[in-house]
Amino acid sequence: MSQHAPARISIAHNSALWSILAVCLAAAVTAPCQTEAGQTSPETGTPQAVSPVVLDRVVAVVNNHAILASDLDDEIRLSVLEPNEGRQDTLTRRRALEQLVSRTLIEQQIRQEDLQAIAPSPDEVSARLDEIRKQLPACVHQNCSTDAGWKAFLASHGLTAERVESYIRYRLEILRFIEQRFRQGIQISQQQIETYYHDTLLPQYAPGEAVPPLDQVAPRIQEILLEQQVNDLFDNWLKNLRQQGDVEVLDPELESAETPAGPGRADP
User: Fold this and answer.
1) What is the largest CA-CA distance in the chain?
2) Which domains does the chain have, with CATH numbers?
3) According to the 3-state scheme, what is the secondary structure of 8-58?
């Protein structure tokens, strides 16, 4: 569930690309954005037609906010930071779109309510990043606790340190938003934390790998269980946002992505 103004989930493009996208969106939001490079024949001096190059395309629009095909690619790459999805159940483009629709709706609500107090500090982002590098099973496999291992992990998954930090910042902000709006009255017991640790987290580590002790990961497990507890409340809230807003899926192959998914789990 699953970000200072809130960190945007869309990929940062350079100014030239944004200019081209703006022209394409103004012309027709459903059309792929293309550019053509003209060439001149050395023999006749006349222009030669070349095939258009597709830079990106809009796959959905959420209250006038465009979700791009490249955003889906980005979401799939980032799913490696969530072991339960990245390890056994590959994130599909349809599910990636569901998550992005939900995140966009949440982000717009946060901006509308001007919830500046939920923005995490740089120290909080740094601490969470350190946890990921030391505890994420996929990172343990590649020794991400070292700088060399972390760089190799990022490169192997097509990520950058800046993109991961932006994603973590957004996730922390969402967790605060959820806690502020939905957590009241919900309690997570020590027994629930221990059960998750033994039944869900430990099986993700191969025999002989260093496993974080329970007391070290208990706060993260508590966050996961909290998200599971508030799913019903959160889903109803998202459904209301969708009913009140304007969500349009433009890619026919993604049209089944109609039910908002939570913005992702916050696994240790």
Assistant:
1) 80
2) 15-33+51-254 (1.10.4030.10)
3) CCCCCCCHHHHHHHHHHHHHCCCCCEEECCCEECCCCCCEECCCCEEEECE
Q: What is the mean pLDDT of residues 150-170?
A: 94
Cα→Cα distances 244→14, 203, 238, 252, Å: 33, 42, 10, 23
Rounded to the nearest 5 degrees, what angle is found at the Cα of 131, between the Cα atoms of 127 and 136?
Answer: 155
Distance between CA 240 and CA 243 in Å, rounded? 5
Tokens 């258009």 sit on residue? 52
Two tokens at 190? 């020590």
Beta strands, E only, the chain: 33-35, 39-40, 47-48, 53-56, 58-62, 65-68, 247-249
Bridge partners of 40, per DSSP, are 47
Give backbone dihedrals phi and psi of 86, rounded to 5 degrees, phi first: -70, -25
pLDDT tops 60 at residue 31: no
CA angle at 53 for the pair 50 and 55, rounded to the nearest 5°: 165
Q: What is the DSSP letter of 244?
A: H
Average pLDDT, rounded, for the chain: 76
Using pLDDT thresholds of 50, 70 and 90, give the confidence band for residue 49.
low
Kindly report the backbone phi and psi dihedral angles of residue 250, in degrees, each rounded to the nearest multiple of 5, phi listed first. Answer: -100, -20
Least confident of 14-23, 99-108, 194-203: 14-23
